[in-house]
Write a structure and sequence with these properties.
single chain; about 325 residues; alpha/beta; TIM Barrel; 11 helices; about 25% helix; binds S-adenosylmethionine; binds iron/sulfur cluster
């Protein structure tokens, strides 16, 4: 497809490198009940004013306008999406958009035991949970909040509600939680869960962290392979993401690595992000954003704005070029 064809009104959305855009991550809030070391400062945060945040109806309208242009899969994220009131009502509205085939939610899991059945009933397909530790005290240290929360109980609640395949994401920090990678991986022996290890990225509030805390995925995989041989695996049946998957013999689940720092996956990037205040971001890093809120509230068609955003989607992210100063935290842009 030529650039001219890809800019034809009504044609499927493609960026200037031919990547089609079928996947949207929707941040519904910049707020959170955690203050993870690698994501947010402990205090002094400036939250977005409520009037700047898109309503559920506005979010659904963006999805309705993107769907005929090729959008198929959604992820609801934040901040912590489960602290926005009646989040299941947004799920219900998005489920009603006929073209959408998959709706997932990213959460820290604290509220899953209460919300999982409600979310499932409203039409959510599955959840990803952040699990940086299995030890209560350490969870509180990393999250800098003590919410007396057990991640395995939350994952089981999601599984029992029918929100599988369950993916558990651990941001690995050398010297802080990397002594638990083996225990996290062992969950895959007993449960059909997909445990994914994410390389720490230098975004957001990293005052407590440095490059020495990054554990390259090759080193992590070597440690796990020393326990039992790791075979490449296809991973979960409904994955969208950039993880590479492996499996221990006879394990019920898989082990994945997400490697923004050591191996780029920009070439196959099919995702864009909608921030809580209504900006379309075409790359997680850098500052490529197009405002949709003003045109949306003025009743304009959004397609020209989508196309403008896509024309600016960069070829690869700027972390790789070590341009890392001043990047917005993932909680602000919908990580
Ligand atoms: N609150 C939800 C959660 O924690 O899953 C959803 C939003 S959170 C910003 C989305 C993902 O971004 C989580 O898996 C989190 O661990 C990851 N993340 C945030 N900051 C990160 C960083 N500096 N490096 C790597 N991953 C990060
Ligand atoms: Fe909150 Fe998720 Fe950021 Fe942790 S990673 S502070 S849970 S938004």
């Amino acid at each position: 497809m030529t650039m001219a064809e890809s800019n034809t009104p009504g044609a499927a959305l493609r960026d200037q490198f031919g990547r089609s855009i079928e996947y949207l991550r929707i941040s519904v809030t910049d707020r959170c009940n955690f203050r993870c070391l690698y994501c947010m400062p402990e205090s002094g945060l400036q939250w977005l004013p409520k009037s700047d945040i898109l309503s559920y109806e506005e979010i659904a309208e963006v999805v309705r306008q993107l769907a005929p242009l090729g959008l198929r899969r959604l992820r609801i994220t934040g901040g912590e999406p489960t602290i926005r009131p009646q989040i299941h009502e947004l799920v219900r509205m998005l489920r009603a958009v006929g073209e959408i085939t998959d709706i997932a939610l990213s959460t820290n899991g604290v509220r899953l035991p209460q919300l999982a059945p409600l979310l499932r009933e409203a039409g959510l397909d599955r959840v990803n949970m952040s699990v940086d530790s299995l030890r209560a005290e350490r969870i509180a240290e990393i999250a800098r909040r003590n919410l007396a929360f057990d991640p395995v109980t939350s994952a089981l609640a999601a599984e029992h509600a029918g929100l599988g395949p369950i993916k558990l994401n651990m941001v690995v920090m050398r010297g802080i939680n990397d002594d638990e990678i083996e225990d996290m991986a062992r969950l895959t022996l007993e449960h059909p869960w997909h445990v994914r290890f994410i390389e720490l990225m230098p975004v957001g509030d990293m005052r407590a962290l440095t490059w020495s805390h990054v554990l390259p995925s090759d080193e992590l995989l070597a440690r796990l392979a020393a326990i039992a041989p790791l075979q490449p695996s296809d991973g979960p049946p409904r994955g969208n993401g950039p993880a590479a998957y492996y499996q221990w013999p006879d394990a019920r689940g898989t082990i994945g690595v997400i490697t923004p720092m050591t191996h780029t996956y920009c070439a196959s990037c099919n995702r864009v992000r909608l921030t809580a205040d209504g900006r379309l971001r075409t790359c997680l890093f850098g500052d490529h954003e197009v405002d949709l809120r003003e045109p949306l509230r003025a009743g304009e068609r959004l397609e020209p704005h989508f196309r403008r955003a896509l024309a600016e989607k960069p070829k690869e992210h700027e972390l790789l070029q070590m341009k890392v100063g001043g990047l917005r935290a993932l909680s602000q842009v919908g990580g």
